[in-house]
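Morning F.,

Quick status update on the modeling queue. The single chain you submitted on Monday has been processed. Sequence for confirmation:
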Amino acid sequence: MSFAPKCLCLDIETAADDALDVRKIAAWRPDTSGQVVIPHVAKARDITGQLDALTEGASFVIGHNLLRHDLPVLRQRFPQLKLLDLPIVDTLELSPIAFPQNPYHSLVKDYKLVRDTRSDPLKDAQLALKLWQDQFDAFKLLGETLPDELACHHYLLTRDPHTGVGSFFATLRRATAPSPNEVKAAARNLLDGKVCATRSDALLGEAIDDPDRCKPLSYLIAWLRVAGGNSVIPPWVRFQYPVVRELIRELRESPCDDPSCHYCQTYLDPKKELERYFGHPAFRPEPSNAAGGSLQEDIVRAGYAGKSILAILPTGGGKSICYQLPALSRHWRNGALTIIISPLQSLMKDQVDNLVKLGIYSAATLNGLLSMPERHDVLEKVRLGDVGLLLVSPEQFRNKALVDAIRYREIGAWVFDEAHCLSKWGNDFRPDYLYVSRFIRERYGKDLAPVCCFTATAKKEVVADLKAHFKESLGIELTSFDGGHERDNLHYEVMPVSKAEKFPLIHRLLEQELKDTPGGAIVFAARRKSCEEISDFLKDMGWACAHFHAGLEPGHKKDIQQSFIAGELRVIAATNAFGMGVDKPDVRVVIHAEIPGSLENYLQEAGRAGRDRQESRCILLYDEEDVEAQFALTAKSRLTRQDIAGILRTLRRHSAKTHSIDVVVTPGEILADDELDTSIEAESPDADTKVRTALAWLERARFLERNENHTRVFPGSLKVGSLEDAGKRLARADLSDDMRRKYLDLVSILINADDDEGISTDTLMLQLGMPSEECIRMLHQLETLGILTNDISLTVLLRRGVKDASSERAERLSRLEATLLDLLPELAPEADGGDWQDMNLRMVCQEVKLRSGADVLPDQLLTLMRSLARPFGEETHGRRAMFDVRVLRRELLRVRLLRSWSNIREIASRRRAAAGVLLQFLLSRLDAHLRGVDLRVECKMGELAAAMRADMMLGPTLKDELSAIEAGLLYLHDNGVLIIDRGKSVFRQAMTLHVFPEEKPRGFTNADYAPLREHYGEKNFQVHVIHEYARLGLKKLSDALSFVLAYFTLPKLDFIRSYFAGRRELLERATTEESYRRIVEELRHPLQQQIVADKGDLNRLILAGPGSGKTRVIVHRVAYLLRVLRAPAHSIVVLTFNRAAAAEVRQRLYALVGNDAAGITVLTYHAMALRLTGTSLAKLAERGEDIAFDHILDDALALLEGRREDIATPEDGDELRDRLLAGYRYILVDEYQDIDARQYALISALAGRKTKDHDAKLTILAVGDDDQNIYAFRNTSNEFIRRFELDYEARIDYLVENYRSSTHVIDAANQLIASNTDRMKHEHPIRVNHARRTAPAGGRWATIDTLAAGRVHILEVPDDIVGQAEIVMKEITRLKSLSPAADWSDFSVLAHNRATLDPIRAWCEIEGVRYATADREGGQPRLHQVREGNSLLALLKAKPKRRIRPAALRRWFSTRYGGGRSDNPWESLLGQFIDEIEAAWPDDCVPSSWLLDELYEFGNEARRSQRGCLVISTVHGAKGREFSHVAILDGGDWREASDDERRLYYVGMTRAKENLILCQASNHPNPFSPALQGEATCRSPLPNTIERRPELSLWYVSTGLKGVFLDFAGYRHQSDPIHRELASLAVGDPLFITQQGDRREIATSSGVVIGRLAKNGHIPEGKIVRSVVESLVWRSSTMVVDPEFRGRLKSTSWWVALPALVIQGRDST
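Structure tokens below.
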């Protein structure tokens, strides 16, 4: 029988923003099938007449939400309607009584009807009748099972005369309404045991007698039928009928004093509830309250009483029960939801799992570990009431889905677990926690639930901060319960350990504790890498072990946790991501392999031990370097003021561009802004967190307000009217039944969305249980099927008609990509196997340049590789990328393939095609006459999709249009072809930021940054505290434990006075006391200390006299930036004048700060230019190309100054400079006085001298001395150093204390240089350092040498250089005899010109004294060209993908060359190179490709080792060196008394530490020594007789590469004996030069001719008396440039012997 009562079914539709604006009306008579549908009320006529006619004969009106919406509206708009006088049946009002159990009814969601058509009020009216029919059936069943309850509803719901349900209930019960007394009796029976008996009688009587309370009582009675399970009272009932909540509070939540009240004595007694839920007969006795009772019980009772509390309980102290038990009770009593905010996902899961083991299923967690179906399930359970305890991470409160889900629930309490995260004084402050209190205030402030804070470790400052925070933000007072931090069953220990001892010690400790005992162990480390290394070691030792850190996949982390808790894993090596998240009761030992970041963290993590109350050990392994590592880790997470200020400027630019103060943007989009200058690396794992943290601080400073995360909204409209129409169209598509159902579900959601709602993909993914990307693709498929339209809009910026237009960029990009994809398989062939492969970015860049002919920079190449690595195609939603790219250092990459190279080429080709179609379409949208940059084009996604489909080649192959569009646009955007100005949020979830326009004039200042600086200072303080604990624990553990107690109980200042008296400054530094002492205090010079320890960004010029420690200042300043200010290593660059100085800086840095120095950039100017331009010397050398360093410098300058041909605008140039220098903040320059115009311009461009943006400038410190500018012949000038102060608004400091020379040497040097004009230090003469001021002016030689007594010894010598050599070497020999410990390397002979030194060299040969020349003679080969260097090249090239440890390189060198101790200078030079590698990569493996480039660079700049040798050099060659004893020759080459020459002589003099000998020619003396007078000098006259040995007239000549015919052996077949003979030669072997006609041939002792001297080799005339092999150079046919000569070659490669000649025949006079 059909259900057709005599009623009028009614529904209306009104405007979303105006309830009185009625749009549609529909009415239907089920008994007559009559209907009235008014689709356009504004245009309709006689609405009253039509509806009245249909109303005739109806007994009542039925509809959904009639009482509170439809009828009040109609009463105002059409007050004469007859239907307004009829009884009313509102199905909404009846639903909570008919269906109190969740889910309420399939046709009801929240308070709305669920429809299958959109905007169809007739259908809705008919659905209301269907719902009433189901309600009728439900009440009928209720009458059969609970007739008393049905009688109560009959009475309570008919007290309102307007309701039309009286006959409804009379029909069901076949009786009239019961009397009040009958209702009271029935209600008492229904409520027995479910409410407080003491209160129920009085309250029932009041409610039954009051018509306004009858309906609320009816709702209460219905809900109590299912209460305590998984149902909650619908939220609209709570809002519309607050009496319901009052009744629940009185009847179920307020305990009475009557001991006979079963309800109160059972359900409101925490002790009985504890046993009921957890099976514990009593609360924990410890920690105890002041009276000796259980503090845990006190906290629980406060929770039951609804108090706001702050509870401090030690780990393992039963903290969780303190909030779980009141939450479970609340959920059972009133259905309230307790929200627990927790920082760790693993902690949440652990709690839920433990409750499930107890049979409690009302807890759930919401965090990033959940899959979409799991997330959907949790939110649905929250909405329906199944969940009573919801554990969430703080960032979830910005998620609209969570906000919507909890909106329907009554909040019982807000619980902040690990509440110290709220305090800036806490060890784990998290800004997202602060948003939660704002969220509570803004959304729940009117009816505020209790706030409960819990932590295991809170010192006084944290407690005060937490109380103040909640007082200010929510106006509540927290009641404190302090249970301390101690656990009696834990035994703490501190053990000293070195790095080498650490792993074996961990193994021994585990054996002691676990070998014969069940249980597990946790080994904590501060770094992920350490966890993995420890885990690998322990697995090798046989332990069931795994590592755990935040970098693991969520599923993998879950598996590890479960395996550890189950006992399958005995040991976990973990970071603190594991620390607060695991509750395994039988952890027997916790070992901290590295010191944690705070005492709080240590106790939290150590507290994982002994949760079963059994004895357990907590061991801290102490190594001072680990403390430095902890400081570094702390600093790594820091933001600078410039970072935050830059992000603010980016957001303001974005706001201005979009003309909106509401900015929707992702962290990635912020970092991708071309104008943003920040230290945050976009590819870093913590980049997202840093951006969000910066936003949190901008929000605190009132620059902006961050609101709920913006979800992608599909601005589409339905093209079908009903679910049935959609089904017909879907039937025509080739879809599985399952997919068709999903599409119909999606259409149903769209139909039931309000007209004013966008389609949020967050909502879709939760309701469909699918990832967001899949939802978007389904929407696009519906568009393709004609069910939806797609109106997503995009705005892009293009370049046309200008230099480097978008089309040109795209063409160049295509060429580069093709070249790169051809090259990469050659460089990383083994990457196909899934292994990581090293790649030298600069070498790749150089090869791409050579192959493509295009100018490409390393950062462009890296961007291209990263964009190539992105997924593309039908598998994009699975995130299967092409390959992984990681940057280890600025130029070193690691690559791992996720597909085959052939597959990558194919995919890349498809993406290029898609990008090309998109670009052409976008360009076609521009006005034909437009030219310029940043030309704006707007389009819709649907138009782009149509363009893709229309392409004949691309269209048929597309399987996923959205993926192709997304990949193509992002590819073009990332590589600078175009800019996606608006619309990237189509592809990414974004944040919503409200940027306050009134704050625009204000920038983020130091005052705004002060709270964050204070927080970072507190983090440093916490590291110092745990360090002090470790140091005390090493000496006496009881002192360390007293220290811990004081930390948590004393006010901070009292604690500092007690334990850091006299060391308070230490607490402000981000380094240990020992490290600070080495970096600053051991300088023992006030000005040096001041310069080094400058905390600001002051630009400085240090005018440093010779021997004043300028290199030391640079090294210690860098160390201070690294260790104290904790500047990132990659933000510091040091420029030195030559390679030796760079090596010295690196070696000193490593000695000072160890591995922290590894990431510092220390380069010469040439090396910096090579890196900026992406030039690889190794690649150029392989092709035999000449290296023009000046040209490379010019290229680098053009890049930095924006002068390259392809740079169209100044803005492009600024952007390029920012990219090239990304991350640099500090630049330190050595020997600034020696720069030339190119180097000056390079430094200027690097430092940003001309830029107007202050934050884009680098802080520069330059060290120099205008008195030591000696390279005027290379166009250097003191003009640059004089301009420094003005150029950089710099401060000038003077370092004039000389640590090198004796007082006599200093006085003589001052006397000399004083005559120069325009000196910058004319008022600051150098002086002996403070510690030596009372020492004899001649130093120790005042007593050793009775002749000169340490004075500057001026020797009168003959004008001829041979006689001079005899005299000066006699004097040097005398000095050496006076100091038996002296080595020849303590002595140096200097001259103006090389020729003057020839007799000294001859003297050494005669006397058998080892010597070295500091000057590089023109045409000499580089290390990589000679046999010794070539042997290393061969090793590296044999395995170009290999990684080599420096120690292994050293072993290879020792095995092959005996450690380089022979007389072969090339072996010594190779040894120097390995020394440098060991300094730069102390503990890491070095990629072969990087070593290759370094070897070529080293060979171009390095000087040969001079260990154990007398150094013979020009003064220019000795610059930067120092020797105990120096002699300066006078060979007639000091010709004029100019300022330039005087500076050169001054530099020579100041090389001397103890003895200085100045030669003065008797007839034509130099212009300087004769003027030196006073006590500092002594003079010796010309000897009467001088022996002049003829051998001193010999000429020692290196032929070099220009002195021999290099291709002589190349013209012989490989089988020719010449090649065997060359291969058998060694450095020092004799050679013979014979004259054959006009040629001089080179032969070996066996008579084999191996080469000949070049005709134009400029070898002096004379007799060659001796010849030896000076070097053996490798040469190949590729180095022969002339095609004609190359065609004559008969060998592909050969050796060339370069002779050293001794020539007789020069006039010695």
